[in-house]
Design goal:
heteropentamer, A mainly alpha, B mainly alpha, C mainly alpha, D alpha+beta, E alpha/beta, C: mainly alpha, 14 helices, globular, D: alpha+beta, seven-stranded antiparallel β-sheet, two-stranded parallel sheet
Chain lengths: ~200, ~220, ~350, ~220, ~475
């Protein structure tokens, strides 16, 4: 199979195949935490960080699971490692950077059930990415998630001051906005495919 | 959920809860990722619904059986392991039944693990009730989820391809609305369904607040 | 002075400048009319029918949502008319009318009514409609007919009258029968992108090439835009930033590799860059309000357009660039709040 | 969990016991499923692959998978040498080599476009083509699956080895619709240029690697060893 | 340094000047038969009456004394007898305690209660006392007691007195006339103020639409060069203190701070001219120049109007016979106050009386208000660098705390530029006034009124804005 270059992977994951807007991953926090800008950014940052950790762990795990021919344990081990990674990140952060912990702490538990994280692990396995590719993929996924979250939060903050009809308020509005954003992101299709 | 002082819900109530009152897709808006990603056709939607229902039933059974011996400190970890087990099982089953379907659903079968609805059910219901009741409730939830997915998948397939279950509905000259099977279409169709529900709820004289269990609405 | 006293009690200021939303919108409609007229001259009946259909759909949809939300009619503010005209100008002249109806409905419903109507929309409604049909009907929206084909005032392009919900007929043969020499069924942008042919400067200036209804003559669009800018109904900084940044970037690329990247004038004159920059990116409700934000917004759109055109899968990028600019507007506004008088530069007041 | 602090703490032994029990139950369930489905899954995969390969190599009756690298030819299942390329050799009923098939992929409009192509060593040409997976725009990009004019490109697409033997004589490339002049060119689908380009690029990348590596081993493959 | 750069502030608007009254001289208005003198004509504590009903008063006699530091006395505008001390309507609506004087028909212009003195012999501190005794307040419209404004706390060193002769509000010409007709009095007033505040130089800022005023003043400048005249571009609100300081000195007064913080005191030309007139003579403030104009006035012009003259008398004199269905505005059209009753008297704060007739009020009143279309015009014109569009949307949602914390509503001085340009016809200034009033209440509720050492206790200031320091004219 032809190898996708790192740039291609990054660009595609951030823009054309944005995790949230094109792959529907991480929708729950996307809808839930995108209400305000000042929570969107830390959430995005925390998620990106955990994605990177999870990607690294999943790469190692996948290697082990393949070597020992225990493929049927892959999913379980992924989900366990992600949950542990979140815990670990939480503890390390608490110890060495309490300020960061205070900023991100409340979002970390939410991240465990964020399907975007598991998505990173599963997709990098399915696509047989090398370690470098996997890490770039995780970076792109995190950046794409954060970007989508920020855009959404900006729009929703603005719409808080608008005369949105009652019927549309709430999740329906968020979904419609996500649809429009997704429509706009279609413009990135094929970006980086050329050369 | 069960509120002290009220008559305990009958089995029928348990069953109907997930289908109507707490429909995971339309009322609780849970499990969105698979709901939107795989519902490009009615078949995929139903397959995903069935797979999720299977995991719901299996995990409800096991969690309910173990409810007395699982210490609360490790209960979430236990539930996740149990759910992941059933997801792996259903993953292999689908691959064994039809590779085509397996590829159509892709990684989203495995992503059932993080469908918060399932963990939510295990935590809020199965861990508290006997297997029979837990299974009935899980079945209701599963069917409710499947109905939700089907509502999405059928609309997207009809508009996006002019077919339902692969059967052409409008003859060969129908112009498909490609956007419907693309990601924006997923958002729009679910958004439109929610709009419809909102509108329907708003037009009733005394709109009742949707019952949302605290433990389930909090995490995405 | 025995009659009862009737004094007006209003708060200051007691004098106003005298502009109004209706006035601004009306002048935008006026400025669009020459472009529409030119389009009709270029493409004849089909373009006319398309414009009328789309505008009518937009107005009816606006009215429908007025009804649904039990508010007074907002048709008189001209904004739905503008949406309809702009949307029609971005569609190919051969676009089936029924798809035009879909586009018009999507524009008003998804792009405007959803958010509460005029002033509240976060995306340019016309572009929402256009993006929706671009995603829904990718084939029809990339089917082009030659400009100034003979018989355009006496017959419709066959696709125009496609029965609702049906696939438009293949018009390759029809186009061959009406061909103006050398027509390839591709826009100048597509010809450059896939065949590396840069269209003739003069042709592009006069608008004799395949394109959407309203984007054939960049010159005419610019003149109409200048009129609006001169009357101060349009923020000149936005088109200036978009066109300037696009030109500069194109120039850099062209200098870097003239064989691969076309000369800057091509970027300016081809496709809908000028139409988008002048009439769509300037949509007030969806562009930033701060002076610095306006420049950032414009430059972002210009750069994104060129990047999509040069490196993306699409031939044209202005529509998506503007939609993305719209999406970024709240963030841009947030970070470019003007400096409060007397507050130290840099530090937050 | 704030409530945890209010509850009596469970002894560690109980926790470990429970977790052990859960792990055992789950493990048993998993292993059972795995064992019982493995055969069916592998059969499914094989059938699917065969169907795909036989589609691009008509007349084939059986097939084998190989890896070929600088170090030599290794049948599927053996240790894969570094930098090796995977391909399939298809044989007819008589056991004679009908053709070789390999997968190619390149970034298309929305995502990777994955195709399978057949390489005919006798004709030194690509003479079969099928799409494995894509996410291109329906109505435009998916024309690569059924557009007759496009598929005609792959009836005899020149893939001769160059004089040096380390690359194709002429790189496979896409030209604008109706512009095909040489046997190594692919006529793009009008309106789906990006996807057509992806197909050409994918096949070119793959063939540029595969064909030179294959050349020394062709005779070994002939008899269906 | 940059001669090609116009000396002015950023943003602002250019409304039509409508200064049709600029050419004619100031005329005098006769006494009304009854004068009404509210005890609270200035910012700060109301004055305390010194007279009782039935008492005779002569023109110039103090009839109310200052109540504390932030307060000024009131002087009788004419000879007559105190008819009553009672509640009378005020311009803003509520009825306020006022001294009513029935004027003797024989009352003349002669001021009979005065004690001429040698100002040069007084110390700055004594000078400030004399200024307070004269009842002088800022005549530009703010009515902030002048002595308080000129009292400079020890920590500030004032280097410049800025004399505000911009008169940027459309229609108003009273300052213009004073500058042209009484430059000597103005110079005298500037000298007094400079001594009181200890400033070494004074700059008179005049908008470039009043070249005759600038010329008249330049002709009378003292030889020592301490006073200079600078012409600034005509732009609204050039006459706002902070704007004028920026235009003349290039200094921006930081948010929430007074001009004193940058070593500047700003005084209006009208204030200083009258100070120069009455202080050496030892008189009190009994009259002021008022521009009476507008489409509904037959004899528009600038008049010396005795303070306390009822509005009805002024309008009758100026030829507005039919005042029904009109809008009558005290002050300029950008910031002025619409009057609720014709019984309202001219006070020290009234710089102009504008009468718009039916034709002029009908059209704007029927204008339809739209949601904000985010055209950004208000951001382009707000002289304080605020984002009125955002503030307006927040105000509509009653997010007052957010307006204050994130969007600096406290800096708004209600100049009206945003409302002036708004094509959606959103009553932005009105919303901001409400928001500021509510925020003031919230602040007051949070910090109960303990007797603080704060010297500038504004009491309950009228809706003139939180900081009277920034006020056009």
């Amino acid at each position: 199979m032809a190898e996708a270059t790192l740039t291609q992977i990054f660009l595609a994951t951030v823009l054309a195949n944005n995790f949230v807007l094109a792959m529907f991953l991480g929708l729950c926090p996307f809808i839930g935490v995108s209400g305000r800008l000042n929570t969107a950014l830390p959430m995005g940052a925390a998620t990106s960080f955990v994605m990177l950790v999870a990607s690294l762990c999943a790469y190692g795990l996948n290697y082990l699971v393949t070597v020992f021919e225990l493929e049927f344990l892959r999913l379980i081990s992924y989900i366990v490692i992600i949950a542990s990674a979140v815990q670990l990140v939480e503890m390390v952060m608490k110890k060495y950077s309490p300020a960061l912990f205070r900023a991100l702490g409340i979002y970390l538990p939410l991240i465990t059930t964020n399907c975007a994280i598991l998505g990173v692990a599963l997709f990098q396995t399915a696509r047989e990415y090398s370690l470098a590719q996997a890490l770039v993929f995780a970076l792109g996924a995190g950046a794409g998630f954060t970007l989508a979250l920020l855009l959404m939060a900006g729009l929703r903050e603005r719409l808080n001051l608008a005369g949105v009809p009652n019927v549309v308020q709430g999740t329906a509005l968020s979904l419609m906005l996500a649809g429009l954003l997704s429509l706009a992101f279609m413009g990135f299709a094929g970006l980086g495919a050329g050369e | 959920m069960v509120i002290p002082g009220q008559t305990p819900p009958t089995n029928l109530d348990e069953f109907l809860e997930g289908i109507w009152k707490q429909n995971p897709v339309f009322v609780m808006v849970l499990g969105l990722c698979p709901a939107l990603a795989v519902t490009v056709s009615a078949v995929n939607a139903l397959a995903m619904g069935a797979a999720t229902t299977f995991v719901l039933l299996g995990s409800a059974l096991l969690v309910s059986l173990m409810r007395r011996i699982v210490p609360r400190e490790v209960r979430i970890a236990t539930y996740i392991v149990i759910i992941a087990t059933f997801v792996t099982i259903v993953d292999y089953l689908i691959a064994a039944i039809s590779l085509e379907l397996y590829e159509a659903l892709g990684a989203f079968i495995q992503l059932i693990v993080v469908n918060c609805m399932i963990l939510g059910r295990a935590e809020a219901h199965a861990s508290k009730f006997a297997p029979g009741r837990a299974l009935i409730n899980a079945l209701g939830m599963g069917i409710g989820f499947s109905i939700g997915l089907f509502a999405l998948g059928s609309v997207r397939e009809i508009l996006g391809a002019g077919t339902l279950f692969g059967v052409p509905l409008f003859g060969p000259d129908f112009q498909p609305w490609v956007v419907m099977v693309l990601p924006p279409g997923g958002f729009f169709v679910l958004g439109a369904w929610l709009l419809l529900f909102n509108w329907w709820r708003n037009r009733k004289p005394a709109p009742r607040e949707p019952v949302v269990a605290a433990g389930e609405a909090s995490h995405g | 002075m025995t009659q009862p006293l009737r004094l007006e009690l209003r708060t200051a200021p007691h004098v106003v400048k005298g502009t109004s939303v209706e006035r601004i919108m009306f002048h935008v409609v006026l400025a669009l009319l020459p472009i529409c007229a030119f389009a009709v001259w270029q493409y004849g009946l089909s373009a006319l029918a398309l414009m009328l259909t789309v505008v009518a759909t937009c107005l009816l949809t606006e009215r429908l949502f007025n009804r649904l939300s039990s508010t007074a009619s907002t048709l008189s503010d001209w904004s739905a008319t503008i949406t309809g005209l702009l949307l029609a100008l971005t569609l190919p002249p051969s676009f089936p009318l029924w798809m035009g109806v879909v586009a018009g409905f999507a524009a008003i419903a998804l792009g405007k009514a959803l958010f509460g109507g005029i002033g509240y929309n976060v995306f340019n409604p016309a572009l929402v409609g256009r993006a929706f049909v671009q995603a829904a009907f990718p084939v029809a929206i990339t089917t082009w007919v030659p400009a100034q084909f003979p018989g355009r005032f006496s017959e419709f392009v066959p696709t125009t009258l496609t029965a609702p919900l049906m696939i438009p007929p293949d018009i390759t043969a029809w186009v061959k029968g009406h061909v103006v020499d050398g027509f390839t069924g591709a826009t100048p942008l597509a010809r450059w992108k896939f065949e590396n042919q840069v269209a003739d400067f003069g042709d592009m200036l006069s608008g004799v090439s395949a394109a959407s209804v309203g984007e054939t003559s960049a010159l005419l669009v610019l003149v109409c835009g200048l009129y609006l800018a001169a009357r101060r109904f349009l923020d000149w900084r936005i088109p200036a930033a978009i066109l300037g940044s696009a030109l500069l970037l194109a120039l850099l690329f062209h200098l870097f590799d003239p064989t691969r990247f076309p000369p800057p004038y091509f970027v300016l004159l081809s496709g809908g860059l000028v139409l988008g920059a002048v009439f769509m990116a300037t949509d007030m409700a969806t562009s930033p309000v701060t002076p610095l934000g306006v420049w950032i917004y414009g430059i972002l759109i210009g750069v994104t357009t060129v990047m999509i055109r040069y490196f993306g899968g699409l031939t044209e990028g202005i529509m998506y660039a503007i939609l993305l600019g719209n999406a970024l507007t709240p963030l841009i506004d947030q970070v470019t709040q003007p400096r409060v008088f007397g507050a130290g530069k840099g530090k937050k007041a | 969990m704030s409530e945890a602090t209010l509850q009596p703490v469970t002894p560690s032994a109980a926790m470990i016991r429970t977790l052990g029990l859960v792990a055992t139950v789950c493990g048993i369930l998993l292993v059972l499923t795995y064992q019982n489905t493995l055969e069916a899954i592998n059969a499914n995969k094989r059938v699917a692959l065969e169907r795909a390969v036989f589609k691009v190599i008509p007349g084939a009756h059986s097939m084998k998978a190989f890896h070929v690298g600088k170090a030599g030819l290794v049948p599927e299942g053996g240790a894969v040498p570094a930098g090796a390329v995977k391909f399939y050799a298809a044989y007819d009923q008589a056991g004679q080599l009908r053709g070789l098939a390999a997968e190619a992929a390149a970034m298309g409009y929305a995502d990777m476009v994955r195709v399978l192509y057949a390489y005919n060593p006798a004709k030194q040409a690509i003479d079969g083509f099928g799409v494995v997976g894509h996410r291109e725009t329906p109505g435009i990009g998916d024309k690569i699956i059924f557009d007759k004019a496009f598929l005609k490109n792959f009836e005899a697409l020149d893939a001769r080895l160059g004089a040096a033997g380390d690359a194709l004589a002429n790189p496979i490339r896409v030209v604008k619709n109706g512009g095909k002049q040489n046997p190594w060119e692919i006529d793009a689908i009008s309106g789906a240029t990006v996807t057509s380009r992806a197909v050409a690029r994918g096949i070119n990348d793959s063939a540029q690697k595969l064909v030179p590596l294959l050349a020394p081993h062709l005779d070994k493959l002939q008899g269906g060893q | 340094m940059f001669p090609w750069r116009k000396k002015t502030f950023s943003r602002g608007v250019h409304p039509d000047g409508n200064k049709s009254t600029a050419g004619s001289p100031i005329r005098r208005m006769p006494f009304a038969s009854r004068m009404i003198l509210p005890l609270a004509q200035h910012i700060g504590k109301p004055a305390v009456p010194l007279v009782r009903a039935g008492e005779e008063v002569v023109r110039g006699q103090p009839i109310a004394r200052a109540n504390g530091f932030l307060s000024v006395p009131i002087h009788a505008p004419a000879d007559g007898v105190v008819e009553s001390i009672e509640l009378k309507p005020s311009a803003r609506g509520p009825w306020v305690e006022s001294i009513v004087i029935r004027v003797y028909e024989a009352s003349t212009q002669e001021i009979r209660w005065a004690e001429p003195r040698d100002l040069d012999a007084l110390s700055p501190k004594e000078l400030l006392q004399v200024i307070q005794d004269s009842g002088m307040v800022g005549l530009g419209g703010a009515a902030f007691p002048s002595h308080a404004k000129m009292t400079v706390p020890g920590e500030f060193a004032i280097h410049t007195l800025i004399v505000n002769g911009c008169e940027c509000e459309p229609y108003l010409t009273c300052d213009h006339k004073l500058m042209r007709e009484h430059p000597d009095d103005l110079m005298q007033g500037i000298r007094i103020a400079m001594r009181a505040i200890g400033a070494g130089r004074a700059i008179i800022g005049v908008e470039d639409n009043k070249p005759d005023a600038a010329a008249a003043m330049r002709a009378r400048l003292p030889a020592d060069g301490a006073i200079s005249v600078e012409v600034v571009p005509t732009k609204y609100p050039q006459g706002a203190e902070k704007m004028l300081i920026k235009s003349l000195l290039g200094i921006e007064v930081p948010p929430g701070k007074l001009p004193m913080h940058v070593g500047v005191v700003v005084n209006n030309v009208g204030t200083l001219t009258q100070l120069g007139q009455i202080l050496p003579a030892g008189q009190g403030l009994t009259e002021r120049v008022v521009t009476v104009t507008g489409p509904g006035i037959k004899k528009p012009g600038d008049y010396w109007v005795p303070i306390g003259t009822p509005m009805r008398t002024v309008l009758e004199w100026a030829g507005a016979q039919d005042v029904s269905e009109r809008e009558i505005i005290l002050g300029g059209p950008m910031m002025g106050q619409a009057v609720a009753s014709l019984e309202v008297p001219v006070t020290k704060a009234v710089s102009g009386i504008l009468v718009f007739d039916r034709r002029h009020i009908e059209a704007p009143a029927s204008r339809r208000s739209y949601p904000c279309i985010k055209c950004g015009e208000c951001v382009n014109v707000c002289p304080m660098g605020l984002n009125p569009s955002m503030l307006g949307m927040l105000a509509a949602r009653r997010e007052y705390d957010l307006m204050s914390s994130d969007h600096h509503i406290g800096e708004c001085f209600e100049c009206g530029c945003c409302t002036y340009v708004c094509p959606a016809h959103i009553p932005l200034v009105q919303q901001f006034k409400v928001a500021k009033a509510i925020l003031r209440e919230r602040v007051a509720a949070k910090a109960p009124a303990h007797e603080s050492g704060e010297r500038f206790d504004f009491g309950a200031p009228p809706t003139h804005g939180r900081k009277p320091s920034v006020h056009p004219d």
